[in-house]
Automatic annotation (TrEMBL):
Keywords: Membrane, Transmembrane, Transmembrane helix, Transport. InterPro entries: MFS (IPR011701), MFS_dom (IPR020846), MFS_trans_sf (IPR036259). This is Major facilitator superfamily (MFS) profile domain-containing protein. One of its GO terms (molecular function) is transmembrane transporter activity.
Amino acid sequence: MSTALPLTEAPPGLRAGTMKKLYTRIVLYCFVLFIINYLDRVNVGFAALQMNEELGLTPRIFGIGAGIFFLGYMAFEVPSNLILHKVGPRIWIARIMVTWGIISCAMAFTAGPWSFYILRFLLGVAEAGFAPGILLYLTYWFPAKERGRAVAGFMTATVLSSVIGAPLSGWLISSTHDFAGFSGWQWMFLLEGAPAIILGVVTFFYLVDRPEQDRHWLTPAERDWLVAELRQEQSAVAGHGMEDFRAIFRDSRVWLLTLVYMCNGIAIYGVVLWLPQIVKSIGGLTNLQTGLVSAIPFVFAAIGLIVIARNSDRTGERKLHTALSGLFGGLFLAASAFAPTPLIGLALLCCAAFVLWATLGVFWTLPTQFLTGAAAAGGLAAINGFAQLGGFFGPTLVGWVRESTGSFTYSLLALAVFPVIGCLICLSLKARRDA
C-alpha cells in the first residue's frame, strides 16, 4: 500500500502531472456537458425568431417565459445539491441530465403562452443543481490554487456553447423548417435536447465521485498526494470557515455573494436570451446570418474568461478580479446602447462580453474560501440558486422595456446598471489571497 506524500515532500512534476490528467479527464468532460446544458437553457432565444410569430408571443410574454426557467431552477437548487452531496455526483448529475434532456425535447410541442411558461419552468426544475453540482464536484478534486483555472475551464462552456450553438441553432431553424410537418424551431429543440439524454447515461458510467475512489485516472502516488493535499486544505478552511449547512443562512458573506452573482446574472442572461433578436433588429440578416453574428461576442467572452482567471490564479487575488470585471462589463454594455453604428455597437458588446463573462470563473473561488463539507454543498447551491432571480429579472426587464419603448437601447442601458452595483457590493467583502 502506498504512503501519502505531504505537500512539502511532493516530488517535482507530481503536482503538474496530476493536474494535467484532471483537466483532461474531469474539466474537459464537464466542459462538454455544460455546453449541452447551456445550449438547452438559452436556445429559446433562437426559437423566438420563428416561434414568437407562429404562436403569437409578444415581447413581454417571451421575456417572462424565457426568465421563468430561473424560478424553477432557484426553487430546487439547494435540495438538489444536498442530495448530490449525499448520493454522489455520478448518480445525481446523470439523473439531472436525462431529465432536462426529456423536457428540452418536449419544448418542441409548445402551443401557446401557458405551455411555454410551464415547460420553461419545468426545464428549470430539471436542470436545478447541475452547475453548482459540477462546481462542488471540482472542489472534491482540485486544490484551491488550481481551482480558479478549473472553474474557468468549466465556465468557458457557457460562452463556447453560444459560439457553437448560435450558428447551429440558426442553421437548424432555417434548414429543417416544414420538414415532416414540423417548424424549424421545433426540430431545433428536439435535436439539441437529445444529446443530454445520451450523455446522461454515459456520465453514470464515466464519473468517479472522489479521488479516494479512483483506480483508473491517477497513479497511486498521484492519488495519495492529491488526497493529502485536499485534506490539508479542508482542515485549514475548517479552522476559519464553516461546515454546518444551516450556518450559511446566518453568514452575511453568503448573501452578499448572492447579490453579486445576481447582478451579473441580470446583465448576462438579459443579453444572452435577447441577443438573436437584438442582432435580427439590425435588419437584412437571415436566421443563419443572425446566428453567425450572434456568436461573435461569445468568442471574446471565452478569451476574457480564460485570460482573467489565469491572472487571478497567478496572483492569488480574487475579489478585485471579480469586481472590476463586472464594473467594466457594465460600462461597455452601457456604451453599446448608444453606439452610433451597428458595427461599433457590436464591438462594444464584444468588449463587454470579454470582461463581464470573466466574473463566472473567478467568482466561484470566493465562497470556497470559507465554505466546506455540507456548507459548501448547500452554500454553492444557495448562492447560485437565489442568484437565479437575476436570470428571471434580466430577460423580463428587457422584454418590458422593449415593448414599452419599441427599442433595445434603453433595455441595454437598464441591464448595464446591475454589474456596476455588483462591483460595489463585491468590493465591500473581506477576502484573502489564495496562496
